[in-house]
Structure formats: C-alpha cells, structure tokens
C-alpha cells in the first residue's frame, strides 16, 4: 500500500489508485508526487462556502516538462483517473488550488517556470505555466527591458498562464488578458501536443505575432474548459510609454454611477482612455486604505448607508472611485488631460493625481497595477469581515449607466438580505463591464457559510432571470453557472469533450463540462 | 516627436532567449522570499507584523503551509521546504530580511 489517500477519485479502487501513484512516481520522481494528508494541506485551503471535503484532492503530481505530462496522460487514461491542472494555483475566491471535484489528482505545473523568450522588438513573451508576474517583472527589470504587462491584483503570487486560461483581467491597456495572448501549446488527453495558430507549422517564427493561423482558431477552446493542459503561452507586452499619468476621480453619491459610465464610455471606446478603467465602491476602497469595519459598525447584518457615508467623509473616499490612466507622450497626455479635467468638472468628480495620491495605500496599489507593477495591496479586502471567506460574484454588464445602477441595486439588496456588505467594482472592458463583487463572509462560522452559499445562489439566479451571465465563476458553482447559459452550448461542449477526452480524465466538471 | 519618444524607449535591444536563465530553483534564500512574497502583505498593513515577535519557526512554517483564514496557503512547488525553514528562522530570530 503506497497511498493512504482519504479522497479516492470516484469509481477508482484503492488498489488501482496505488498503481497510478506508483506509475506517476516513476515518471516524475518520488518526491514530486504527494499523497499524505499533511503534505496536501496547502492544496486544500479554499475560501468558498462549501465544506473542504467537497474539493478534497487525492494526490498532487508536479511534473517538470511536456514529455512528463504526456506520459501522465497515458497513465490517467489507463486507470481513468481524473487530473486537475493548475499553473500558479492562486485562483483565490474562485477555487484556489483545489480541484473542481473531490478525488481528482491535482497536476501542479508551478515547477515549470521558464521564461522561454522575450522579443523586445516585437514586444512579445513566451512563458511556461509556473511563471509568476513577479518573476516576469523582475526578469524585465534585470534585463533593462522597457516593457510592461498587464496583471491581476494578486500579481506577485499569480501568473499569466493560469490567469489567462481562466480569462482573467488586469488594469493596463492590455487588461483583457486572453485578447493579448498569442499562441498556446497544449497537451491533449491522448498525449498529443498541439500548438495553436501559427505554432502548428514546424518552422514558423510567427507564433507569437499572429493569433489566427489557418482554419478555425482553436485558442478559445482551451480557456475556461478542460480540453487540454496548457504548457506554453505567448503574450504581448506593451512598450513602456514615455509618459504615464494615472489618476482617480471620486464621486460623492452612489447614484452617480449612471453619469460616470455615460461620460467615460465614449472616452474608453475611442481609446482616449486606453486602459481597463475601474469604478470602485467605497467598501472596496475602505479595507485597502485600511479602514476597520468594527470602527464604524458592530451590529448585525450589512453595514448601514450612514456608516458608509461616515467612512467616505473620514477617509476622503468617494462613493465611487474611478481609476484610469493616460499612456502616451507628454504632448499627447497634456492634450488628453484637458479632456479628463473637463469630464470630471462636468460630472461633479474630484480628480486625484499621482502627486496628490501619496500616502494613500488604496490609491498607490491601484496606480501600480495600472502600470503592471506587482503587489498584493488588494488582499486588504480580507480584513473587512475577517475569517477568510470569499467568493467572487462577477456578472457582465453593458457599459451603460442605467444598467450598472440596476445591477448595483439588485446586488446590494440581495446581499443585505443575507447580512452581507456590497463590496463591488466595475472593470470597464471596451464596451462591457465586469461587475465584480467580493462576497466576504466569516468562513469559521458554519451559519455564515450557509448564508454565503444561499446568497450567491440567489444572486446567480436573480441575475440570470434578468439576462445577466457570469464572466467567470468559482468551482463550487460551476455546474449551476453553466446551466444559466442554456442547453445547446452545453451539448456542443459535451460533444467536444467526448471527441477530445473520451475517458473524461482532464478536470471533469470544470465549467460544468463532463461526460 | 511622438515616434522619437517611443523609439528612444526601446533603443537597440537584441532578442533575449532565456534558456536556463530564468526559472528552476527560484529562491536564493529566505530573505529574498520574504521580500518578494511575505513582505507584500506583512509589510503593507495586509497581514500582521511578524518581525520582532519571536514567533516559533515551526508555527510560521505551519501557517505558510496550511494558510489561516485570510492568509493564503503556499505549496512546496511555490516555496521549497529549505527556503521556508530559512524564512521562518529569519523572522523568528530577527535576522536580516531584505527590503527594497
Ligand atoms: C484580492 C484578490 C484580488 C483579485 N483580483 C483579480 C483581478 O484583478 N483579476 C483577475 O483576473 N483575478 C483576480 N483575482 C482572482 C485570482 O486570484 C486571479 O485571477 C489569479 O490570477 C488566478 O490564479 P492563477 O493565476 O494562479 O491561476 P491558476 O489557479 O493556476 O489557474 C486557474 C484555473 O485555470 C485552470 N488552469 C490553470 N492552469 C491550467 C493549464 N496549464 N492548463 C489547463 N487549465 C489550467 C484550472 O482550472 C485552474 O484552477 C483576485 C483574487 C484575490 C484574492
Ligand atoms: C496575500 C497576503 C499574504 C502573504 C503573501 C503572506 N501572508 Fe502571512 N498572513 C496574511 C494575513 C492576512 C494574515 C492574518 C490572517 C488572519 O488572522 O486572518 C497572515 C498571518 C500570518 C502568520 C500568523 C501571524 C500571527 O500573528 O499569528 C504568519 C506566521 C504568517 N502570516 C507568515 C507568512 C509568511 C512567512 C509569508 C511568506 C512566505 C506570508 N505570511 C505571506 C497575509 C499574507
């Protein structure tokens, strides 16, 4: 008996599981397969409002290299054991490093952390799944390359491949990360290695510069899916602009969101403001300032509006806080700055420039993120309620004022019903907004966990009734979220799964896809 | 004007192929780990101050592997045992912890 796994994969006997462990150890080396419960602890920590057991892994395998992954696929097929690939494994609030279903073997690709190539002329990079944004940042600094990337808030510990395959977002002009990826290498369930786009050609040198290739473009199939293990990804880097001018515009009232969006949309679509603008609510800014909730409210239920108003006044935080930047030369930015000033004046907003932002932690980490400088300032959010419970409720909205106000009010009402605060922001894509709400609760209290689960459920279904779908979702709700997108899409996804992974071995259940 | 400013930024730079130069072993020592990971939270009002409290090294290592409420857990692929032991020792004894 080599293994004492508590959580065997569904339908796999202990004897077969032992054989699997023995065979994958022979591939990657003994020390790169973990089965003991205490060694697996870091994979088990989740923030979602469901019991840990639901997402308990059976083992972790940590390959280093494409060839090892190909061989692991063979073993997985032979015994029909499911493997759940992660890259940097910091999908906190969406499932962390735990598998979507109990018993899956996590395939941890963090050891594969090579920055394979950076081309400073074409401004591209090719990276492996284990590369973190911090590592890429340090690499560019060390080599004195004036190139920027876009990263999500947990940048110092997360990485471009994991973030991109879950279709995450960042805050520079390259903020829609999948859009700015270019070329992937994928190990399929049968062990074949597919390079997408131009990479399919033996001797092509255009893999990282032209996305589409010939025939259908397949890249999208390997995001928010379980059709392959992504082992390399190309990404576009942005030349550092000669002049970068980040700013914040604060607005005093919650209802101001309507005019903010109406005023900003034209600037964003026309690319006067080229980056992913954020419109953050007071209660997102407060914990990152940091403000303590207990200093303002200790009663039951959601924090009352009067307390929120007092926080705004005491700490110079807006009801809404718009973050954006100008990226250009001094001349172009001077010209565009006049437009920003006019828009702020016309809508009753107060501009805070980089100089004026000094000393505010909340402003500083945002300004850093808008130039792709890694930090972890946003984790201040978790000190708001305490107790380490968090799931992101993240519906897509049109970039129209009335729509955003409607979504905000719907969410706030439902959250309050369960006693939770509206901690939300809108991330402006180009014509869409990701309305991201952090449902914060105390995970050490079973009754709060139950309420958080019920609250997300009601949010999901109420929003779906109004035609609003999620941009991304946590693994506990994968099935329910997939169901809101209707039967035809799911049927096609299932047929693809059958064709590419007939033994259902890669992350079955991810995004609701399984056989 | 505009063209010149942008071009000046990128200058003459050759293709950088990073074969072997980045990745692999990753942490030089616990001080580097502290600076690149822990410090982002523990020196920034996100996590509690750790230095100067003589926290037992075993406790520090345990928190890093298990996580604790708002503190995320870190896997051995992210932080190897030796570097973790080194950072725990440094935090516990107040040894040098680099900071930018
Ligand atoms: C405070 C805070 C702020 C956040 N802010 C943001 C933000 O601004 N933007 C944002 O996008 N997210 C944000 N997040 C969510 C999340 O932490 C990031 O998206 C993070 O980048 C995801 O983790 P990762 O990069 O380590 O990916 P991973 O955890 O490695 O991957 C995510 C998922 O993708 C799949 N996957 C990963 N690698 C592969 C592969 N090689 N092949 C096939 N499938 C794979 C797996 O299903 C995996 O679970 C935030 C989280 C926190 C806690
Ligand atoms: C993303 C932010 C973050 C990072 C990165 C982080 N921590 Fe923490 N850490 C926290 C928070 C927040 C807490 C408090 C958790 C709670 O009580 O809810 C904490 C708690 C701790 C504690 C317990 C302190 C006590 O008072 O008992 C230790 C020890 C610790 N961290 C060590 C580390 C070490 C070592 C690292 C680097 C390897 C690290 N942390 C990285 C956020 C972080």
From TrEMBL, chain A:
Its cofactor is FAD. Pfam families: FAD-oxidase_C, FAD_binding_4. Residues 47-240 form the FAD-binding PCMH-type domain. Keywords: FAD, Flavoprotein, Oxidoreductase. GO terms for molecular function: D-lactate dehydrogenase (cytochrome) activity; D-lactate dehydrogenase (NAD+) activity; FAD binding. GO terms for biological process: lactate catabolic process. This is 4-cresol dehydrogenase (Hydroxylating). The lineage of its organism: Bacteria, Pseudomonadati, Pseudomonadota, Betaproteobacteria, Rhodocyclales.
Automatic annotation (TrEMBL), chain B:
Gene3D superfamilies: Cytochrome c-like domain (1.10.760.10). Residues 26-88 form the Cytochrome c domain. The keyword NAD does not apply. Keywords: Heme, Iron, Metal-binding, Signal. One of its GO terms (molecular function) is heme binding. The keyword Iron applies. Coiled coil: none annotated. InterPro entries: Cyt_c-like_dom, Cyt_c-like_dom_sf. Residues 1-24 form the signal peptide. This is Cytochrome C oxidase, cbb3-type, subunit III. It comes from Aromatoleum tolulyticum.
């Amino acid at each position: 008996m080599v293994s004492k796994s508590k959580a065997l994969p569904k339908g796999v006997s202990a004897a077969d599981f032992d054989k699997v462990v023995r065979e994958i150890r022979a591939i990657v080396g003994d020390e790169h397969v973990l089965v003991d419960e205490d060694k697996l602890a870091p994979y088990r920590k989740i923030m979602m409002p469901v019991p840990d057991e639901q997402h308990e892994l059976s083992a972790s395998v940590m390959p280093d290299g494409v060839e090892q992954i190909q061989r692991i696929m063979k073993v997985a097929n032979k015994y029909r054991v499911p493997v759940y690939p992660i890259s940097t494994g910091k999908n906190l609030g969406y499932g962390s490093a735990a598998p979507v279903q109990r018993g899956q073997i996590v395939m941890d690709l963090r050891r594969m952390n090579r920055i394979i190539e950076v081309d400073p002329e074409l401004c591209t990079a090719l990276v492996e799944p284990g590369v973190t944004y911090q590592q890429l940042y340090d690499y560019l600094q060390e080599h004195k390359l004036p190139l920027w990337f876009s990263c999500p808030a947990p940048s110092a510990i997360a990485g471009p491949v994991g973030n991109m395959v879950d279709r995450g977002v960042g805050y520079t002009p390259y903020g829609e990360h999948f859009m700015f990826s270019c070329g992937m290498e994928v190990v399929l369930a049968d062990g074949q290695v597919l390079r997408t786009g131009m990479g399919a050609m033996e001797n092509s040198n255009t893999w990282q510069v032209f996305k589409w290739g010939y025939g259908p473009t397949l890249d999208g199939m390997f995001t928010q899916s379980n059709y392959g293990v992504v082992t390399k990804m190309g990404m576009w880097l942005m030349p550092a602009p000669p002049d970068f001018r980040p700013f914040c515009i604060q607005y005093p009232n919650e209802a101001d969101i309507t005019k903010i969006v109406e005023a900003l949309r034209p600037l964003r679509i026309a690319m006067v403001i080229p980056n992913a603008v954020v419109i953050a609510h007071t209660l997102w800014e407060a914990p990152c300032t940091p403000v303590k909730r207990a200093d303002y409210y200790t009663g039951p239920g959601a924090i009352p509006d009067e307390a929120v108003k007092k926080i705004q006044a005491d700490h110079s935080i807006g009801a809404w806080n718009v973050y954006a930047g100008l990226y250009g030369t001094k001349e172009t930015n001077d010209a565009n700055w006049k437009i920003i000033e006019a828009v702020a004046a016309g809508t009753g907003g107060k501009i805070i420039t980089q100089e004026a932002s000094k000393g505010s932690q909340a402003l500083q980490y945002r300004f850093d993120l808008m130039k792709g400088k890694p930090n972890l300032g946003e984790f201040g959010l978790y000190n708001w309620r305490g107790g380490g419970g968090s799931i992101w409720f993240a519906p897509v909205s049109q970039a129209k004022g009335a729509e955003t106000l409607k979504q905000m009010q719907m969410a706030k009402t439902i959250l309050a019903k369960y006693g939770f605060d509206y901690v939300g922001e809108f991330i402006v894509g180009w014509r869409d907004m990701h309305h991201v709400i952090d449902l914060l609760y105390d995970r050490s209290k079973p009754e709060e966990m139950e309420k958080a689960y019920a609250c997300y459920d009601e949010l999901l279904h109420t929003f779906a009734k109004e035609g609003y779908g999620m941009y991304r979702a946590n693994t506990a709700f994968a099935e329910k979220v997939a169901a809101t997108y209707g039967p035809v899409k799911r049927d096609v996804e299932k047929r693809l799964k059958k064709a590419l992974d007939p033994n259902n071995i890669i992350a079955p259940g991810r995004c609701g896809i399984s056989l | 004007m505009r063209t010149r400013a942008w071009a000046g930024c990128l200058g003459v730079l050759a293709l950088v192929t990073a074969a072997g130069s980045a990745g692999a072993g990753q942490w030089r020592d616990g001080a580097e780990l502290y600076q690149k990971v822990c410090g982002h939270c523990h020196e920034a009002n996100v996590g509690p101050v750790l230095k100067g409290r003589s926290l037992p090294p075993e406790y520090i290592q345990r928190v890093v592997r298990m996580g604790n409420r708002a503190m995320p857990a870190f896997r051995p692929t992210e932080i190897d045992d030796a570097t973790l032991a080194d950072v725990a020792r440094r935090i516990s004894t107040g040894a040098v912890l680099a900071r930018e």
